Amino acid sequence: MTALRRHRKLSAIWSSEPGFRGWFSSVNHSDLGRMFLVTAFFFFLVGGVLAMLIRAQLATPHSAFADAGAFAQFFTMHGTIMMFLFAIPTFEGLAIYLLPKMLGTRDLAFPRLTAYGYWCYAFGGSMLLVALVFGIAPDGGWFMYPPLTGPLHSPGINTDFWLIGITFVEISAICAAVELCVSILKYRAPGMSLDKMPIFAWYALVTALMILTGFPPLILGSVLLELERAFGLPFFQADLGGDSLLWQHLFWLFGHPEVYIIFLPAAGVISTIIPVMARTTLLGYGWIVASAVALAFLSFGLWVHHMFTTGIPLMGLAFFSAASTLVAVPTGVQVFAWIGTLWKGRPEMHLPMLHIFGFFFTFVIGGLTGVMVAVVPFDWQAHDTAFITAHLHYVLFGGFVFPILAGIYYWLPLVSGRKRFFRLGEVAFALIFLGFHGTFLAMHWVGLMGQRRRIETYDAETGWGAINLISSISSFIMAIGLAMVLIDVLIHAFVAVRGGRNPWKAGTLEWASMSPPPAYNFASLPHVTSRDAFHGDPGLANRLAKGEGYLGDPQSARRETLTVDIATGDPDFMVIYPGNTRLPILMAAVTGLFFLSILIKLYWLTPLALAGVAALALVWVWRLGARTDAGPQDAGRGVTLALAGETEKSPGWWGSVFLLVANATFFGSLLFGYAFLWTVAPGWPPQDWLAPSLVELGIGGAAALTSALAMRLAIRGNRHRARPLPGLAFALTATLVTAVTFAMLLSRVPPPDGHAYAATLFVLGSYALCHALIAGLMLAFAIARARRGYTSPARQAEFHIVSLWTDYLAVIATLSLLAAHLPGFLA
Amino acid sequence: MVDPAGPAARTIATLWWVMLAGAAAILALVLGLLLAAFRRRGTASDEAAGVKVWIIGLGFVFSMSVLAALTVYGLFAGQRLMPGAGAGVEAGVGTRVGADVVSVSAEARQWSWRFAYDDRPDHITDDVLHIPAGRPVDVAITTTDVVHSFWVPRLAGKLDAIPGHVNTLRIEADTPGTYQGLTAEYNGPGYRAHVFTVEAHDAQSWDAFVAGDRQ
User: Fold this and answer.
1) For an interface test with A, which of B185, B195, B198 has the most A Cβ atoms less than 10 Å from its Cβ?
2) Which of A32, A253, A272, B72 gives the lowest tally of CB atoms within 10 Å of its CB?
3) Of B39, B61, B86, which closes a domain?
4) Which helix (H) or strand (E) holds A123?
5) Would the CB atoms of A457 and B192 count as touching at under 8 Å?
């Protein structure tokens, strides 16, 4: 087969539907990565327009441009959009587009999940846009502190848009994070052991793990605040046993890791580009990976530094201040490693390098002011002033926007297959750089002079007028620069001349694909032997196109790829992907209906929407699998592999593991909230505890444990005698008993709107009940699959997935029951 | 804060100038090294030597020592500013005894402040806080509705008013006079105008205030 015929055949198998219809049914990572990026940049423009409205208002004293209410919507939505609808989705889009290409494979682990995540993002973001257009956007500041955002002080729908819209969007972040973890660990070219992974993949892996552990506290906080607003459960009301500080803890438990979730992918871009621009290899690869991991761990230990002014005791302040300064060490290691890389090679000043220079200058200043505000006494003065606004823009613009601009110019030739020919980019960089520093350098100073953040205007006597005017004019210069980048990119994408492959002479595998890359990425998968796979082997691209790698023989109409052992990179099993489908967009729409029903308080619709989601989820998984054993498959180059469905640890198993990591963090945050309210909130202990019951505790705990054990019996029964049904039926019964126990517990909880204790118990019980029902649904599904012949001793993957969920149920049911009954026994 | 008028604000202002100087030096160092990479015409250094110089030397040893020094400095500065340290010695203020500390309370609501005085139990002032100059004042801060923050920029840092909690902030004015106070946590549409004044009295006028001769 010639390379061209192979290309045509693979394209027929992998292509999305032509035209705009393809947008709705595509599950291809290149399509969805681009859709993520385009949507994220659209939101960047919206957020940018809001920023310009803010600066227009503050340009002169006593400006009558916007009133306090409108101004509050501007700054709240500016922060919210930039954080949740621009920065995180940009990372997702970049990682989704690039990673399979860099890792030498054909797609991500769960193509339909990629699409579902995108549509959740698009629909959730649209909800916030609608709120903005109708002037009912959130207005409590982007960190939404109650009681200001509670039912008493913000009765309007504005806050609900934030809580519900952002939670909806966060589904996409969790989906992308699960997908990236599994993809990076399992979906690589054979031979690519962990230490041969491109550095960007390491950064993306650490970031994805941080999303899984960083977002759940905020999701929990949003759920609790929405429950308080909609049903009066008083989690944040001091007079009913709640505490508004709980929100601040949950929010910043998310919010500080969030800063590194934004910075680390950008650091991955920098670590990728700098060695290429300097014609050398990255200095201290292992050290950089270790610093990224250290940064991730440290970032979870310093959320309190956003709360230095809330009256934390001195010892606490000392601990968190030390942790906050300590986080500068791994950052310093990375910055110096990058400069060392430049010294090691022969750096050239191309356009991406200009933006990296912008990164260094801006981010180092942001880091230094960050160390300043980590020093507690200084923070007492600077907190909530324009100094903080300036600091965080130095960190985020320096640490994210400049590197992303560098990345755009670096990877554009790959995406478009064209060469830049206008020199617009250099002028745009100069305007952005000067405009940015003019805007925010001035803001530090006016903050030190006492200008608070979020004030809608100020008196002329303050003497801040000139500084604010400089700031505003500079911000418009920056905006012109960013608009020029947009024009430059559009010209590049549509009218520039064709360019050759790998213009930067980079060593990573994405450049071994065609430019623009085809839907299947590689006609055959490479065998990787070094970190810069493409550098020492310029003929690689042609050999791959000729089908000399793995899976180079497209016999059937299957979308095939293979997975590897996590550490060694040896081939593990073969994967058949699902094809184009509209199921993800439908599922996202029904999910949206669920959120919408809560937003507009159409509560009769909520259970219908949930049932719809469950039904679609069953369709989703039912479509996979086969009714006969396929046996070992030929993967080319003399390797034979089992199909994913005929292994114990299938992609679905790995996906469940990472989803459960996020889920366990959510549950852990809930227990933290319970303990926090108990020990810190005023108004405790409550008037009466739940009447403890040894019977309920015993039956519920035993049933949950039985369900986990019975599921193991089912797996053994399937493996040895092809008889999973007795074990499955036993497990289903035990799960239903667990569900009934929690339903009874919920019926005995004191009125949840009377005290935060009862409210917490109510959420805890509902969480466990919900998981018992999910496990029950999965067991019923497994029984149906077994009866229809979709399982066999070889086709066992689904049982192992269900087993994970029954194990998880056993753990959380036991802990929930203990947390509910123990206080009663002790009292 | 660039114009301090009390010991706490002055300590913080000094801290700021020290940190600014340090930060400027570090920025110059990093940018110097960055630009030098483009001007260098020497032999390329090898990986092991690079790791030693850049990662161990600059990344670890340099960052760690600067940060350790700063953290210790910051903690000592912070400890002296905490309430309860009043019986101790403060730089430039001299020795004082615990009885010297004046206690007042501040209660925030949307959008005003109500102040009460331990030394004059039946008296309440709205949006004006009276304190004696030259004596440390512990302000017990709370709120009746949402989160606010008590801040007199020229005297000290800020501290939040949290529903259901009471936080105590130490402030002190060097000389009698009027100082502007601000609320510093966004608290709704009235946020900008949510301000108050602090009247620092000399000893005689403070005694008169406590005795009820002044409003």
Assistant:
1) B185
2) B72
3) B86
4) helix A111-133
5) yes
State the ipTM, two decimals. Answer: 0.92
Do B67 and B142 fall within a single domain? Answer: no
Q: Angle at CA A462, nearest 5°, toward A460 and A468?
A: 75
Give the rounded percent of residues in chain A with a pLDDT score beyond 70.
100
- Which range is least confidently modeled, A122-126, A139-143, A310-314? A310-314
* Whole-number Å distance between alpha carbons of A779 and A766: 20
From B31, B167, B190, residue closest to A311, measured CB to CB: B167
> Does some domain include residue B197?
yes
Distance CA B31, CA A273 (A): 19
> Which chain B residues are closer than 8 Å to A140 by Cβ?
186
Q: Which of B63, B86, B109 is the last residue of a domain?
A: B86
Pairing of strands B120-126, A633-634: unpaired
User: Which residues, 6+ apart, have CB-to-CB distance to A766 below 8 Å?
Assistant: A746
To which residue do tokens 């149920």 refer? A809
Helix (H, G, I), strand (E, B) or coil at B195: strand
* Chain B closest-CA separation from residue A90 CA (Å): 28
The reply to whether residue A321 touches residue B26, judged by beta carbons under 8 angstroms, is: no
CATH class of A604-826: mainly alpha
Q: Residue A740's pLDDT band (boundaries 50, 70, 90)?
A: very high
In 3-state terms, what secondary structure has residue A525? strand
Question: CB distance from B93 to chain A under 8 Å?
Answer: no
- When pLDDT is cut at 50, 70 and 90, the band that residue B96 belongs to is very low
Domain that holds residue B82: 7-86
**What value does the CA radius of gyration of chain A take, rounded to a whole number of Å?**
27
Question: In the structure encoding, which two tokens stand for residue A250, read together?
Answer: 């949950």
| Reported pTM | 0.96
Considering the domain boundaries, does residue B93 fall inside one?
no
Give tens-digit pLDDT for B11-64: 999 999 999 999 999 999 999 999 998 887 656 667 888 888 898 888 889 998
Neighbours of A195 (CB within 10 A): 12
Is the same domain home to B31 and B70?
Answer: yes
**Is A448 within 8 Å of B77 when comparing Cβ atoms?**
no
d(CA A108, CA A659): 16
Count of Cβ atoms closer than 10 Å to residue B89 Cβ: 10
CB burial of residue B95 (10 Å; 0-12, 13-18, 19+): exposed
Shortest distance, CA A61 to any CA of chain B (angstroms): 13
**What are the structural domain ranges in chain A?**
604-826
CATH number for the domain spanning B150: value is 2.60.40.420
Phi/psi region, residue A436 (left: phi>0; alpha: psi -120 to 50; beta: rest), is: alpha
* C-alpha dihedral, A374 to A377 to A379 to A380, nearest 10°: 150
Residue A532 pLDDT > 90, yes or no? no
- The number of domains in chain B is 2
Rounded average pLDDT over A533-549:
87
Quick one: B207 and B139 in the same domain? yes
Q: What's the DSSP call for residue A305?
A: G
Quick one: average pLDDT of A24-28?
96
Q: Could you give the C-alpha distances from A528 to A277, A534, A538, B8, B159, in angstroms and in order?
A: 23, 9, 13, 61, 57
Contact A337 B59 (CB under 8 A): yes
Alpha carbon distances (Å) from A468 to A206, A383, A440, A477, B192: 39, 19, 10, 14, 16
Residue A607 structure tokens: 């259970």
Query: Which of A322, A709, A280 is closest to A531 using CA atoms?
Result: A280
Do B27 and B108 reside in the same domain of the chain?
A: no
Q: SS3 letters for B135-187?
A: CCEEEEEEECCCCEEEECCCCCCCEEECCCCCEEEEECCCCCEEEEEEECCCC
